[in-house]
Amino acid sequence: MERIRKETGTNAEEIRRDLDCSGLFSTFCAPVSSGLKGKKTKIKKTKLPQAPQYRPKRHLRPGQMQRRRARRMDSAEQANGEKRVKALLIEPLLARGLAKPKGFTKQADFDAMVAKVLCPKLAYMTELSLAALEEEVAANPKGKGRDQMMIPNEILERAAKIQPPAAEASPLMRAVFAAALGRDAMAGNWGPELLRFLRKNRAWPTALNIQGIKAESESALRKVEDIRQRQTSGRLVSDADLQWIASRDAAQKKCEAIQAIVSGGAA
Q1: What pLDDT, on a 0 to 100 scale, did the predictor assign at position 211?
Q2: Which residues touch 67 (CB under 8 Å, ≥6 apart)?
């Protein structure tokens, strides 16, 4: 209408009257103007799907991947081992009619001891060793009526005689090799002698113990050098010497394995 007014010089009222005469205004403009009059038009908001956030993948070094895989395997093996202990040791002893050990007469205390002591510490044992341990514990009942199980500590001692725990299975050994003491031992090449001490004594070495371990290591290293020289020169090396040096090499590898485990756990 404004454009028509400007072009023709006609005012708005005259244009509306002319449109009314032709019926165009009432047909096209009036319904639209009356429908919008007094109403607010609402625009419906549509939620757009959010794009997934980009998270860059963390690339692990080969050593980290191996340690992570080893920890997963250790966890699975530990869980399976604990189930073996319960199925092949605890349940058969209870089925024989043996009562709970002294000091663990309450069911809750006994269950906690089994879950937190026996199962975790004996999880390394094979099925055959657990069967042998069960037979030995059953054959040596305790209590006045000879109808009680051994106390946990005695069961662990007998288990160690049947199947000694692997070096990397001992929390004490892990703690020692994670500490400065273990790092010094590996740097000074007296790790095998430290490992032998820990397996024998099951205790953190004192300063006096460390002196003895180092002295033993110096003697062992002199023996290693002598055997190597004899091998190089083609001189006779006894089977006992070969077995001894192979045993020390195996102990060195176990020390390295323990150190890899504790360094992986700290990462």
Answers
A1: 96
A2: 260, 261, 263, 264, 267
Q: What is the mean pLDDT of each run of 10 residues along the chain (267 residues)?
A: 54 58 50 50 61 60 51 70 95 94 90 93 93 96 92 92 76 89 95 91 91 96 94 91 93 90 63
Please give the pLDDT value at position 257: 87
* Per-residue b or e along 37-68, where b marks 16 or more CB atoms closer than 10 Å to that residue's CB: eeeeeeeeeeeeeeeeeeeeeeeeeeeeeebe
* b/e 161-177 (16+ beta carbons within 10 angstroms → b): ebbebebbbbeebbebb
Dist. CA 113–CA 145, nearest whole Å: 23
CA-based torsion, 233, 238, 239, 243: positive or negative: negative
Query: Are the C-beta atoms of 125 and 133 separated by less than 8 Å?
Result: yes
Helix axes 239-266, 171-178, angle to 10 degrees: 80
User: What does the angle CA 27 – CA 32 – CA 35 come to, to the nearest 5 degrees?
Assistant: 125
- Here the tokens at position 134 are 């069960």
Q: Which two tokens stand for residue 230?
A: 């004899």
Query: Scanning the structure block, which residue is given the tokens 């919008």?
Result: 36
Residue pair 122/85 in contact by the 8 Å Cβ criterion: yes
Distance CA 111, CA 40 (A): 72
Instruction: Please tell me the distance from the alpha carbon of residue 238 to that of residue 232, in angstroms, as a whole number.
Output: 14
pTM of the model: 0.49
Instruction: Name the residue with tokens 């019926």.
Output: 23
Model pLDDT, residue 259 = 87
The residue length of the chain stands at 267
Question: Residue 9: its pLDDT value, please?
Answer: 53
- CA–CA distance, 67 with 58 (Å, rounded to integer): 15
